[in-house]
Fold this sequence. Notes:
The protein is mainly alpha-helical. The chain contains nine helices and two strands.
Amino acid sequence: MDYALRLHLCLFVDSHGKMMMTQYDDLNLLDDWLLRQAIEQAERRVPIDEELVPESVAQLGRVYIHLYVQTIFEGEVGNGGLHQFFENSSGALAPIVRDALEQMNLSDYANIMGELVTALGPEYPFDQSARLVKMQSNPAFQEMLDRGYQAIDVWTEEFCLARAKYARDNGVVK
């Protein structure tokens, strides 16, 4: 079956006009759709600090939001580590990533993210420029990032299995 058609068949509108999604056969296909939502948000030139999660994902609920932020997190951290995640616009997602990691029973990773989020102050800096200023002016934060870089590995079996289990347990994938 054509890839675009498979994605289209997963989305439908219920009798109340709310977008719904059927189960995916596997997490990779869902990840592709989630990344497409991020690309479309960027193409619309909507800054991530103005719309943390695309509406097309947000209206599907908490589980999809968690999987979305984890997809973005995995891409950033897998490419350039925690430094890249926090320095890029996607760092605005850190508080949601922390919550998602906790829900996926990745407590060690969630604790690291929680410490990093807390270290940036009581009002988390969603704006990238403000976040960079706080990061650069806080040597302790840089040390925490270095430790977190060594501790968080999104390519481990533990991380991958936890994401897949979370998606399955919440009825998102078969």
